[in-house]
Each structure stands twice: as structure tokens, then as C-alpha cells.
Batch of 2 targets.
Target 1
Amino acid sequence: MTIDIRSTGAPKQKPDDAAPLSFGVYTTDHMLVMEWTREQGWGQPSVIPYGDLSLDPAALTLHYGQAVFDGFKAFATADGGAALFRPDAYMARLNQSARRLDMPELPVGTTLAAVERFVDLERGWIPTRPDSALYLRPTMIATEPHIGVKSSDRFLFFVIASPVGAYYAEGFSAVKIKVEDEFVRAAPGGLGAAKTPANYAASLLAGRRAKSEGYAQVLWLDAVERRWVEEVGSMNIFFRIAGKVITPPLTGSILPGVTRQCVIEMLAADGVAVQERRIDIEEVISAHEDGMLQEVFGSGTAAVISSVGLLHYRGKDYPIGDGTGGELASKLFRQITGIQYGRDEDRFGWLAKVPRVE
Ligand SMILES: *Cc1c(COP(=O)(O)O)cnc(C)c1O
């Protein structure tokens, strides 16, 4: 495979590494692009200067939402190098999302080699402050111009990168979450398990309302009975009730999170079996009333692990613990980030070192 590299002649000013970075504000100097056509399949990947895309206003992605994306991170490791965290798992999920949206699958080996080359070129953009990383956003969109509804015969795959710090403005203190019982995010048989913009479009109104009421995100309930817990805006959800750790199962309407999988594997290695089962919001509320709801936390690439300090459901607040975050959540956060930054041994083989070519 050859990767065409065209370096920028006008590098941007990098953010000050001494100041905290907010999430997703900066983008780096370059981007990775690769095109697909129905006749030819995937073309060669190229790394080109970051810049505007040129799209026909009739491009199918703009009208019918044929698009998927993913999000993973590159870290500056303790040994001075750079590493990607579980890139194969994220690529597998991107291809799973692509299949659901009737889009072509990416060639995993070629794509990851190109991503490594891209990250190698952007090494200087990987922040070194604690809890910061270079967030990678692989995206695929339908580019064929066509006003009628159909699957596109042309797609653009691109990867952009953004140096990021902590996800929530609150930092790592616990977040307040509103249980959403009016709107739903995804129905059985729908797009819920795919990382696709449509799911986020469905969530924005509820999310903004929750924010204006003082909550960081919403907790979604199932679309049929408004009763079974699904997930939080961009995180999967875990409960610790009377010593048992519970998370909703992957039944097709929630996103199969890589961080969710890390939590399950890590706890299994410590002899804790996570129960993947349906959990009724009423079970959560009555556990709270019985003093058995010990912890609630979310898992996602951006925030890693995020403690929930309060649930709001049907006009009532349910504070959890002392509201500052749970002990299991902070242990998992330390363990996962310990591996990501190379502070701890990579005992699960989750890190892929980025080879140095530049
Ligand atoms: C990305 C995402 C998650 C978390 O998945 P990770 O792989 O852990 O980042 C959870 N829910 C939704 C809706 C998502 O889009």
C-alpha cells in the first residue's frame, strides 16, 4: 500500500500545553482521506492539509443522512512514544455501523496503517498534559449527488484529529443526569447500535432541554415501554446495586461501547462478573429508596469513566452517594487511563504503538 502524503505549508498555532484543553475545539494540520466508488472500491489513502471539503449540494449524505463515524484516541505514552488505544475494536465497530447504513466496509489493515502514518505526522499535536489525548474522528459520508432516495455509489472516508482534555466542564467530579421519559433515542430494529449522526440528531432537543435545567446529559429509556434503561447521551451506563455491577445488554438499540467492553473485561479480570441484563428504572429508584444504589457511572471514549452524582426522574432528584463520585468509578478510571498513558502494564494488549517514520 502507498500512502500519498502532502504536508501543509502553513502549520497552525498549537494550543498552549500548560492550559487545560476543552473538548473538540482545535483541529490539527492534516487530515486523512480515502474515496470509494461502486465500480472501483476503495482508492489509495492520502494525508493532505486540513481544509474544507467540496461537496455537491445534492450529495446524498446531506439529504438522507447516510453517514457513520467513530471516535478513538492516541496517547503520548510514558516512554516518549505514541499509542492508539484498541484501534482494531473501533475499526470493527465502524464497519458494523457502515453495514447497518448500507455503506462499504473499510479495509481494516490499510486503514489502520494509514491512521498510524497520519498520527505519526501529527505527533507534535498529541498533548502531554495529564488526562489529555489526541482524539481521532474517522467519518464516512455519501458523496454522490442525487435528489432521489437511494444508497450512494460514492463515499468519502476521512479522519480528522483534535487535541482534547477532560470531556466535561465539571472535570472529573460527578455529573447530574436527567432520566428522559418523553423523547426516545432509538427503537428496536432501528439505528441505535450504529454510530451515526441520525442518533445524535434525535438526541439534541432533549439534551439541550436537560442542560437548560442544569443536567449534563439525559439517560434514555427504551422506546417501547419507557421503562428499561438504555444509555446516556454518549456513554454506556453501569449501576452498582447492593454490591452487584449491572449494565444493560446489547440488544440492538444501544451503542456497543468499547469502553463498556473494557470495564467488563477489567472487572472480570478482578473476579467481578458484570451482569449484562435489562434494568428497569423503577428498580434503580427503589434501590435508591432502600439505600442500595451505591454507584452509577457512564463509560465512553471521550470521558473514559464518568461518575453520576445525581439522577433526576419525573420531577424528583435522587442524589447518589455524597454526590462527588463513586469508588469503583474512580478505580476504573485510574486503571483504564493507567494503561492508556503507559503508566501501568498493558496486561490486556490494548495499546498499539505508533511506528515512527517522520
Ligand atoms: C460512542 C458512544 C458511546 C460510547 O462508546 P465508546 O466506544 O466507549 O466510546 C456510547 N453511546 C453512544 C450513543 C455513543 O455514540
Note: The first strand starts at residue 4 and ends at 5.
Target 2
Amino acid sequence: SSRFWNLPCGILLLSLPLIAGWTASNCLVTEGSWLPLVSRFFLNCPLNSRLPLLAVCTKVTNLTQALEAVPQSVEGLCLAGSISVLPQDALSNYPGLKVLGLNLRLTRLLPGALRGLGQLQELSFMAPQSKNYLFLHPNALDDLRSLQKLNFLGPCLDRNSSIQLPTSLRQLVVRYSCLQDVGELDDIFPDLAHSPFSGDARTLDVLDLSFNWQLKMASPGALQGLRLGTLHLDHTKMDAAAVLSLGLQKLKSLSVLFTVTAELPAETVAHFELQELQVGNKQIGHITLEALAFCHSLQSLVLQNGGLTALPPNFLAAMPRLQRLNLAGNQLQRVRLCTNETGFVSGLWTLNLSDNGLLALSPATFSCLSHLRELLLQRNQLVSLEGEVFQDLWRLEILDLSRNPLVNLGGGWLAPLPSLTTLNLLNTHILFRPTWGFWGPESLHHLRLQLPSAPAGVALSLPERLTSLELQAVPGMKHRKLFPNVFPILETLTLDGWGLHLETQNISEIFPALRQLTLLGSSLEALCSQDTSNFFLWQLPGLQSLKVRGDGHSPRPCCITGLPNLQELKLDALKYRARPRPVQLQELVGELPRLRVLQLARTGLETLSAAAFQGLGSLQVLVLDWEKGLVLDGGLQERSPQMPQYVYILTSSLACRCANAWLEPWFEGSPRTYMWVQPPQLCPAESGGGSKHPLFPFLLNHCQEALELKLFGGSFAFLLLLISLPLLQEARNSWVLYLQALLRAWFQGLRGQKNEGKNFLYDVFVSHCRQDQGWVVQELLPALEGCPPEGQGLRLCLPERDFEPGKDVVDNVADSMASSPITLCVLSHRALRTPRCRLELRLATSLLLAAPHPPVLLLIFLEPVSRHQLPRYHRLARLLRRGDYCVWPKEDEGKDSFWAWLRGRLGQPRCR
Ligand SMILES: *[C@@H]1O[C@H](CO)[C@@H](O)[C@H](O)[C@H]1NC(C)=O
Ligand SMILES: *[C@@H]1O[C@H](CO)[C@@H](O)[C@H](O)[C@H]1NC(C)=O
Ligand SMILES: *[C@@H]1O[C@H](CO)[C@@H](O)[C@H](O)[C@H]1NC(C)=O
Ligand SMILES: *[C@@H]1O[C@H](CO)[C@@H](O)[C@H](O)[C@H]1NC(C)=O
Ligand SMILES: *[C@@H]1O[C@H](CO)[C@@H](O)[C@H](O)[C@H]1NC(C)=O
């Protein structure tokens, strides 16, 4: 639509309806790559970051209205609210939709409700309340030719529905519903088991019936003939044995966590020759050898939270194909997986023994696991480890020992693990030992370590070839030196708490390859200069990502600056607000020319002004989270071409101050930035008690003075709104005329886009007010219009002289401005006091901001005008290129250089 003509190009932008005034909608729009930044607003929503453009709308009561704020090109859309009926063609404006989530109180879908969604791949019906019945027409899904995944998360389905499933369907999920018998599915989806087209059995990858708390029966033959990949029955009252009677033709994987299944479902495993089984339930207690004998087909077994205290002998030998074993959350204080009599070697790749209360590991525990790649032992009670435990694990790559009260590690305990790449020793109590000089295998690349307590002066010796390192300091411990002095390939460093003795000067020599730095705890202060400048001291030219999470009370802001390659910055929980004056954005960020993502949470930030964006030329997304009383400086609107493309203000409040009054009209017309402020934004009640007022209507009523100045806003809607405001009455006629002129000029600019390189009727449009006419006629005209060498040979357009008689004044102004490549504004004190003149200047400024091929704007001050007299125009100066304004000198000797300047700006003399 024409609203976007003044945008810098970019298909995505063009498709954003930037009218998305948040006052009118609760929809948040984002690109997939930015989804992680706003993911908590997409909760319960099946959207993923592979989709290029996504939207989520909450509190939807009128669908038509809500969708006005959603670009047609979205590929993922979630709607939450209280709509009960989805009408025909409800979403047919979104033919490219791939994923749709409906968290509405839907009771029925009218036929054709999903028409036009031929590309939809995933559809979810969610119900905020349980026992919400949803009636689907049998043909409701007919148009969804590409549907692969269908989720009902909450609503109950009527047994008579007879819903026809698309043939493309691969996954069906019915969770939190009212199912009591798997057989009900047969009525709801009569073609579930048998495809109506081929007559053959249907194939599904996944059927997920978990969290149907009432589900306890399986009518025999309910899924007769279905070929199924995975069946989920977790959190139901089903017994895994009942799966046998369903009539499934094929099943590869079964999950029955938290069901009434009280033992290993041996028969079921054997019948289907299951490859994967997940079972977990306190009642299991132990595993019988008889049951195990049926499980030889298993490749993956999860036996979680089963209350197991011991494993049967030959446990692994009974499952020769087993690759993944998860025994987490049981009560195995000791574990014996291998017996050395038989010489059996297991093919196990992954073993998860976390959360078990293991007290010790005997030397032969893992002796038959020479294929093991991953061993997870976190959250146990291990106090000491000797190398012999690992002696046969020569393929092991990942070892997690975190959250164990580990004190002693035998000398050379890692020596038997030549393939180890990843080691986690966080939250342990390891004591320093002098024998620690060697840190295990060459291959170790990823290390997470709680700094061992050690005598002062002892350097912490680490492997040199690390690529990622996380160090956790215990509060109060002495700072340690690092050894070696250089980590040549370390890319990722996380410092939790401080604890290291690192010089600021040569940090980039120690970590020459550092790309990602995360500082947790109060560590930012150590890195901030202590003089008045307060800027970040670590000069890391290669750094791309910096994340800082403070402890919630830092004494003063530290400005992150001088990191030429930083692309992502997150500052969290710093809270400088205890200081006497509020924090400004430019105190937190400085020169970061490559920064694309800036996330600020709980920093105590208050003021956001244009100055802060000067050093952030590449910023694409700004997220402000948990900030209170934000003030967005009005200067941002002229800055808007340089503002980030997306600004999200989440769980934060805007200050109820007139300084924010310009925002609403700007939101509605903002030509480039997509800005979303999480509603509701409120002003306190005037008389203390009583109800609060919505922010913007309140500001509109109380801040007219502030609003009047904000004409640069730039949307037609805003301008038309302004026209009708009573505050303009004093100068109604001229204002209205000029506003109309502005619109006309814009439209002409739009048309002008098509005929680039057109011949302009005039060279310069001169905007001046009547009071300055004398100067224009006596000085300016001869100098510019006269033929060279005295004059410049230019064709000027003067409103008084050149307006076509009889033509509408509005047309005249608009046409003249659009037909001159240069607009010259002559300003004086008198001019600035005249509303009409001010308006003309604004008009020119707006053109400059809005036009696709902006005219050159030059300013001439007839007398020095102080900044204070230019309260509304000082921002203008920023828009001007350097040297686009000049003061007319009082003395004669300055005049030559004045004319020289002007000629230089206007270009070559010419004469026709
Ligand atoms: C929903 O909003 C649209 C557009 O704002 C309006 O035309 C329509 O009347 C509204 N419908 C209801 C039921 O309020
Ligand atoms: C569903 O079917 C039963 C019997 O098959 C019938 O009594 C009932 O009225 C039907 N309900 C609807 C909503 O069609
Ligand atoms: C191991 O088990 C724990 C506890 O259930 C779980 O959090 C973790 O994701 C599991 N890891 C793997 C790789 O299965
Ligand atoms: C393995 O065998 C040796 C003798 O060959 C025996 O001493 C040891 O106790 C056995 N270990 C286990 C765990 O059975
Ligand atoms: C550089 O760092 C090393 C090790 O941290 C330190 O010993 C050395 O004194 C530092 N050099 C300079 C010039 O700061």
C-alpha cells in the first residue's frame, strides 16, 4: 500500500503493516531469527525460528481487527483470546501460512474456516480451559493439503465429529483432552487407521495421546492396521500391555512415562520388536530377568524415575542392540553394569545415570562399555574418583560430573580418556592438588569447572587447546592466575563470579580468538575504568557476542564500547537505578558499529535518546525488558531512519510524562521501525486512588503543547488527526492548507519515484516568510538568478511570484516543492515566530525525511539564532549534512564567503 512508499527497500519491511499501533492490537510480529529474544510471548505456541516472519496475537476478541496488525507474509501465526467461532475464510488472507496455533475458546469451525491454507504444515488447537468442546465439521481440514502435524492441546473432541484427516498427515497429537478410550479416536477420525483413498492402512510417524488424565482403556482393534512410528501415552492411566490389543500393524517406539505400567512391558516390546521404550513409574521397583529376556530388540531404553535400587545381572547383555540407556532419577546408590566373567562388550553409546544418589563407582563399573561416547553422572553423591573407573572408556567424548560433592580426583584420573572433548565439573568441591599439572587429553575442548580452592599464588593450569571454557568462582575466593598465558583457539568464555587475575591491557593476547564472552555475577565492575569515563576496558577486536548478567546492584553504569565486531549484546540485572539520576542508553552502549542485537533487562535504564544510536549503525533489534518508567526522547523520530528495525518493550512501563506523548502517533505512522510495547501502559489515577488511565489517551489530553511540536511524525493518519485537533485552531486556515500541501507533495514524491531523473521545473524552491521578502528580493534573487558571472543562472521558485494565479494555493505549494530538487529555507527571528513559516520549514523537513529521492535542504539564517530559539529545529540540524546551513554575515567582508558557500551548494552556474 502507499503507506510504504518511503521505505528503504526490503521485501520484509514492505510487507509489515507498520500501522501496527500497539494501542489497537495485541499482536507481536517478529522475524524467526529474533524469536529467541521474545520467545516467552510465544509460549504454548508451536512456532519455530526457521519461519522467516512470525506473529502472535493475544487477547483477541475480534479476529478481523486483530489481524489488521499482522502482515500477510507471516508464515507462523498464533492467536490467543476468546473467540468461539472461526468464520469462513477467517485466514484466507494468509496463503503462505505454514504454522498456525489457535489458543481461542473455539467451540466450532464453520465450513471453509481454513480455506486458502494450502501450505499449512502444522495446525494446533489449544484450549485455555479444560473441558472445552470443539466441534469440527467433517470437512474442516479438507483444504489443508500440506498438513503434516495436527495438534489438539486441550479441547475435547466430539465423538460424532467424523473428521477427515488430510492424507499428508504424519503426526497427530491429542493431549489434555477428554479421551477415556483410545477407541474414541476411531469415531473422531474414522480414517485414522485406514486411508479412505488407497484403502490401505495409514502410516503415521507419531500418535501422541499423553496427558489425557482419564485415558484408561483401549478398545480392541481401535487402531486396526495403523502403521505407527511412535506412540506416546505418558501421564495417562494406560498400561503398556493394553497397546497389544489396539491392532497396530507396526510400532517402533512406545512411551509410557507416568502411567500405571508397573513393570517392563516385555510382551509389548517383544510383539512389536520395539526399538525404543520409555517407561517410568515408582511402582516398577525392580526388573525381572524374565522380562528382560523379551527386550533384545531395544536400541533405546529410558527407565526413568522407576524407583530402581538395583539392576539385574546381565542387564546389558540382555539387550545387545542397546545404544542409549537412561536410568536417571532412580535410587541406584551403586551400579554394576558389567560383569567380567562373560567378556561381554556392550554397544552402548549414551549412558545417563544422573539424579541417582550414586556414592561410589567401583573400578569395573564401566568395563564393558568400550563404545560409550557420553556418560552423564551429574547430581549424584560421588566424593572421589580414581582413574581406573574410566580405564576402558577410550571412546568417551562427553563426561558430566557436575553437582557431585567431588573432593578428590586421583592423579591422572583423566589419562584413560584419550577421546574426551567435553568435561563438566561445575558445582563440585574439588580441592587443589599439586599433581594437577596435567589436565588430561589433548582432545579436551570444552571445559566447565568450578575453580578449585588453592593456596594463594598458585596458577590455575588448564589445557591450552580449549575452545570453550566456563569458570565458576566461589564467592570470596582469592583471584587466581591462569596458566598457560595464551589460549590460542578459545572462542567461548564464561566467567561466573570473578576469581581470575586477568590484566586488562593484554586480554586480547591471552584470548586472541575469543568470540563469545559471558560474564555472570558482579564481574562487570572489574572490567570498567574507575575514572569518570566508565567504559569497558577489555579490548577484544574479534568479540561477537557479549552477555553480562549482574547481581542486581551495580554502583554505576559501565559503557560497553570499542568492540568493533560485536554483534550481540545482552545486559541483564545490573540495576543502576539506585543512583541519583536515571540511566541513559548512551551510558550503557557506545561505539559498536556491527551490533545487530541489543537486549537490556533490569538495567535501570530510563532515557532512550537518539544520541545513543549514533554509535550503533547496524542495530536491527532492540529489546527492553523489565525496565521501569522509560522515556523515549522525541529526537528519536527524526532519527527513525537509523533506528533499529524492531524495538520491543516488554514487561516494562513507559513513564507517564509528556515527553512520551509523541510516541503514539509515531507508532501508528512510523515508517521503518516496528515497535511493540507490551500493553497495558497506564498512568496513575490523578487523585491518588481510583482507577488508572490508559497512558496515551491520558497524555493526549494533558500534553497538547508537547504534541503540537511533533508534526514530523510522518503518517497520513497522524496528520489528518492533527488537523482535527482543536489546538490548531489559532492558525487553522494556513495549517490546514499546508498540511494538505504536505500530503500532495508526498503523493507527488510517490509519483515522482516512477520517473526518476525527471527534469525539474525549477532549480530551487525558496521558502521564506513575508517579513524576509526584502532580503530575498534584493540579495538572493540577483545573486542566484542573474546570469554568470554576477549571478548563478538558476531558476528560483518564489511562492509570491511564481505560484500560478487562480490555482489552489495548496496545489501550488506542493507542486512547487515537488518540482524543485533543492529547497532553500530563509530563517530569521521573525520567521521563527510566524506559525506559517515554521510550518513551511517543517514541511520541507518532512519532505526530506519522507521523500524517496529527498530534495536537498539548505538553511540560511539571516541572523545568528541560538539553539534555545530553535527548540524545534535543533533536531533538524542533525538531518542536515554537515555544512548545509549558513548565517548571513552582518559585515560586508563575510559576504563573499557566504555566496561562495551557497554557490558551492547549489552547483554549477548555468544560463539558459
Ligand atoms: C471487528 O472489527 C472490524 C474492523 O475493526 C469491524 O468492522 C467489525 O464490526 C468488528 N466485529 C465485531 C463483531 O465487533
Ligand atoms: C452423536 O451420536 C449419538 C449416537 O450415535 C447421538 O445420540 C447424538 O445425538 C449425536 N450427537 C451429535 C451432536 O450429533
Ligand atoms: C539425563 O537425565 C536427566 C535427568 O532426567 C535429563 O535432564 C537429561 O536431559 C538426560 N540427558 C540425556 C542426554 O538424556
Ligand atoms: C572381575 O574378575 C576378577 C578376577 O578375574 C575379580 O577379582 C573381580 O572381582 C571381578 N570384578 C567384578 C566386578 O566382577
Ligand atoms: C600479560 O598477561 C600475562 C599473564 O596474564 C602477565 O603475566 C603479563 O604481565 C601481562 N603483560 C602485560 C604487559 O600486561
Note: The chain has 18 helices and 45 strands.
